[in-house]
Known about the structure:
With 399 residues, this protein is of the alpha+beta class. The chain has two domains: 2-50 and 261-398, no CATH class; 65-253, no CATH class. The protein is built from 13 helices and twelve strands. The protein is elongated and about 105 Å long. Mean pLDDT is 84; it is low at 73-83.
Amino acid sequence: MFQWQVAWRYLTSNLLQSALLIAGVALGVVAFVFITALINGLAIVLTEETTGSIAHITLEPQVRVAPVLTDQSDYAATPVSNSQRRQIRDWQVLVSMIEAMPGVVAVRPEIDGNGFLVRGEAVAPVAIKGIEPEKLSVVAPIADSIVSGRADLSAGSLLIGTQLAGDLGLGVGQPVILRTERDRERLLTVGGIFETGIASVDERLAYLNLRSARPLFELPDGVIQLSIRLQDPADAETLAPALASLTGLHAVPWQERNRNLEDALAAQASTGSLIQLFAMVSIAIGVASALLLSTYRRRSEIGIMRSFGISRRFVAMVFVIQGLLVGLLGGLVGALSGYALCLWLYSIRQADGDPILPIAPDQGGYALVIALTTLCAVLAAVLPARAASRLDPLEAIQQ
């Protein structure tokens, strides 16, 4: 305990200097907490925006191959002709099986296809998604995004985005001709117009009743794919192989189709880690320089202690304990201040109600930064401690 008493006495003998040292450490911790909360908050926002409007896992038919007799009288595997539609015929059974799996929220059978919407001389390409009316919003909240009309997917009704409606000059209740890639066409009525805020969706996508989509895409029984919504989108890559094994279909997690997002988040995390490293280095330099200066100021005291038989290890531990106390106190003060800063920034809202910064106050890495700060301060104190322990008692007393 005598080592701790001496270390505490050294720290409290000059309160202003110690307070400035702890404040400098705390400032570095605040920077660490702010960057961590900002990087993690931005990752959460981007992931939620991405996964909020897409399927977390998509089940598709396996790519089939057919044996073709060659001139050498052997068989070679070649892809089936594109005219043969890949489809899932036993989808009702599969939906029941998948919905019973833990972690699965909803399953939506879909018929996907391309076509054109024709209104007079105006023609616009469109991606059609044929679904069951009661499952309109299980993947993306389309019903909540309706800005005109209603989420009506009765027979002969069509839901389109605001940009697509503007390009064709369409309004609710107006007729439009849908001409599909299968050279089928039908007169439909705009039942509702939605706005998701995603340009590619509002400009290109249209929803149609599953029964109405069947004759237009020549699929009387099957569906093109099964879209699955999970409780936790992060589980998609883990559950995808299990679903593929259970159903015999090709399972595609959302991460596989959004590699650009994964790469961007990884680069963002690397940048944040670099800034965090700089914060820790600045803390270590500050602690080392302050304690090294303290060793020169207390050379005579160290010499007197050594002349009384105090060991080199004792002297070294006094300065290591000072580093420990400075790191611990600075880490605690900085973590609390950083949390308060993050809460304040999170409370500042824009006109639409979103925070001015995509910051997550609960993702500041507080335990980690306190531990790292304490460790860095202890390591930074090793050099001053080593210098203090090597002082010659006689030379120090004479000086």
